[in-house]
Amino acid sequence: MKTFLIYSFCKVNLSLRVIAKLRTGLHKIQSIVTFVNLFDIIKIKEINSEQDQIKFYGKFKHNINLKDNTISKTLDLLRKNNYLKKKKFKIYIKKNIPHSAGLGGGSMNSATLIKFFLSTYKLEISEKKLFKIACKIGSDVFLGLKIQNTFLMGNKKFLKRFKGKLNIFVVLANPGIRCLSKNIYSMNKKFSNTYAKKNAFNFKKLFDLDNIRQEKNDLEKVVFERYLKVGNLNRFMKEQKNCIFSRMSGSGSTCVGYFNNFANAQKAKKNIAKKFPNYWCEVAKTI
């Protein structure tokens, strides 16, 4: 049977506002999200077997629960909802994106797999049903079902895709600290006002770089105070020549610097590698 090669792209939060804590314990947020051309590689093949074969390899293969991960959850939930029936798969995932790092690595793996099944096996799943399945797997999975700039408003109740392209280079750096979203959100005591409606629905303005530069990530305060290395990394990133702005993505601990051209981004990467030789650091571009 044919082996398919699919790419699971990295998610970056350009901004993140925490609006309120809900009675359920979850949080109401608003976020401007983009994707960059850094990706995990997924090899998938249908097999004649009684069990799936799931394997993680690559730089960030460690600390992934082999029995309970976004890949296994995706397969289990699709089957519980009567999709894929008795089909079994060999799935190998090369982890190029650090996990528990604010980049949605595991969630994007799941979203990429769902899109593959929808296309290859012609699954007929309503948008509402698909949304419910995605949310049961992980909080960011639904974002990756379409690789576009996205505005998330509320607690997943409003999602708007923006077709324009940012065309900026990014430097992603991570000190090797795992930030579990549940823990970081639980420690957050800072809440923001919602976006003004006129901005929230004026997507050209919303995704304007000057507007994004003035935005923030409310979770930075918690992470920077708890993990001094992350705060120091973000400050150093900001100091790099022609860095438009630098901000933590999601609940951390990856800091992202934004640059207008590749040369400046590459120079920043070299400086970070010299200053923090043990940190993961990559240059990518928004897609």
Summarize this entry quickly.
This protein has 287 residues and is α+β, with helices and mostly antiparallel strands. It has ten helices and ten strands.
What are the salient characteristics of this protein?
alpha+beta, 10 strands, 287 residues, six-stranded mixed beta sheet, four-stranded antiparallel beta sheet
Describe the structure.
The chain is α+β, with helices and mostly antiparallel strands. It contains 10 helices and 10 strands. It has helices at residues 70-80, 105-120, 127-137, 181-187, 197-200, 203-206, 209-213, 220-226, 228-238, 262-275, and strands at residues 3-21, 27-47, 53-57, 88-94, 149-154, 158-162, 169-174, 245-248, 255-259, 280-285. Strands 1, 2, 3, 4, 5 and 6 form a 6-stranded mixed β-sheet that branches. Strands 8-9-7-10 form a 4-stranded antiparallel β-sheet, covered by helices on one side. α1 (70-80) links the parallel β3 (53-57) and β4 (88-94). α1 (70-80) runs parallel beside α2, α1 crosses α3 (127-137) and α8 crosses α9 (228-238). The two termini are 32 Å apart. The relative contact order is 0.18. The mean pLDDT is 93.
